[in-house]
């Protein structure tokens, strides 16, 4: 206890050193702990499923057409689920919805229609009742399993919900047979209900078996690698029975760990942000080492006197270590407090950018990480200097007080390292900012601003086309609405869209072209300001009983017809289980339906009036305040049983795609600002201490006729020389580090542009001049007599 009291007195006697060191340690530890908590909650913590690391998703790819991430056909999914080697279980599913109507209000429940292997692959057991069985799926029984959220919010957590009948609009009632635990939301999101998907009831020659519509989840068998599973699945997809005699290259399977699917492209950005937070901590530790060295240099004479009076090196070293331990402990406490505050901000910023934000907390593991940082970093940074001070009493008694900063390449390396790490942080932040700027300037191919979307799946026995025409008339008449149109799938929605294989009627032996299919009304293209490249747009005359027509995108026209004109050509399109020959009447410009970072994919548009379907999205441009409510009221007036699936502004999906880039740019920018501030402080401390140690030398030189500006120039050269070495090393570190990380989520391709390098160098030059400018100014104004008295 006496040693602790003595250490506290020593720290209290040097408040400048103590407060500055604590502030820097708290900042470094706080940022590192906050990012480690984020990394742990999003990436490192296991999934809430048994052996979650074996859970995979499966998609299809077609290298010849540069298609990736496609859904599987019924034939492919069934073959894959039939005992593929290396898979313990595999299930497939399709997104849908059911509508409940209580006599006054309609409510839609998001639904997964699933095969019997779905729950087996996830390894999840029901909270109540049972899950869907193979018999349920095979016989297409009218049964359903509820999600935990739907059970709580839709049915009040009623423990007697099993056996309850769900009355659906224009569908047979479903009997509730089970309730799933809340953990399943990690995979299924807002899905509220699961029901059987009886694909086996489709005839073997049904064209619907060739539609790419199914999502697939699987579980690897123990000891099986992802590559082995992919090879086995690809072999199943290449089976002639699966391909059904279709021409062209066979599709391949692409397996991906579910955690990667969940996190997406944010993995590399999260690791990069964590690395930058650690860089800030290292810069803080280097600065603390500089301050410790300066303080211990000033105490060398005191240490020597105490040794001369009988104090042992061990006791002096132990006293110093106690001071450092107290400093580290206080840094951990303050750092954890700063991290707790920072996590509130991080969670708010990351809510729409990063999954699993609920897991970003300070738990025992995160606290242990903070203690590890607080104990190891400052002690390791200062231990060598402390031992040198305790071992040099004779030199100190003779007046040797230069300290660690007094000379030597190793000693001058501290500010160089700080500048290098700060430069790397700044270049990384500028690179992310440049990536965000580029993403924001990418043209999606359509005008999203001012467009409101009301999306739903149509129920009821009324014919689709008359219903849509009446609703479009009502929407167009709303106050402020400039235009209204219909589509089966709005751009970037992912709901109601379908992928089909297009064939050219004149060349049936050619490989089919994968394209997205949209049903649209006249005016859809004009409302979204999608340019017409050739031919004509749809008009009200394109209805049932007239020749089937279509618009194709520029990419689809190029894939189908090469350099030949697409207008007037006939294309085969699978629609509602049959192949329909449609005549191309126009070519429209490409849109980026898969994201701003993806190349435009081929698309084909057909008139909704000729090829109607249940998926509907009504778009309006303009409108006064309350347009969404007015649109919902117009729908309810036509059919109060119709529930809305989603109501949103069309610009929202684009903003959501930009959200991760904005989050990481802001986070890394904050880290870079902290790193730059710490590096400037460290460089200033070194320059100021070196200038102070040379006061006597400067005074003598001024007394014998040296010019003050020569003194200032010398201090500037010394400080800027160290900074230049640090900046060069930092540039190399940034360029190498960015190449190692996958930062595609934030629009960064892994290279640093010359403009970013130039901006980073300019910023660091300004920072270095700021850091050494004041010591240089002081060196030029040292009074000779005062300097001689100091010496």
TrEMBL record:
Instruction: Note whether Flavoprotein occurs among the keywords.
Output: no
Residue ranges constituting the MacB-like periplasmic core domain according to the UniProt record: 19-235, 415-611
The answer on whether this UniProt entry bears the keyword Membrane reads: yes
Bilayer topology term: Multi-pass membrane protein
Q: Where in the cell is it found?
A: Cell membrane
Q: Name one GO molecular function term.
A: transmembrane transporter activity
A GO cellular component entry from the record: plasma membrane
Q: Which UniProt keywords apply?
A: Cell membrane, Membrane, Transmembrane, Transmembrane helix
Membrane-spanning ranges: 12-36, 269-292, 320-346, 366-392, 413-437, 663-687, 719-741, 753-777
Domain ABC3 transporter permease C-terminal: start-end pairs: 275-391, 670-784
The family note in this entry says:
Belongs to the ABC-4 integral membrane protein family.
This protein's name: Permease
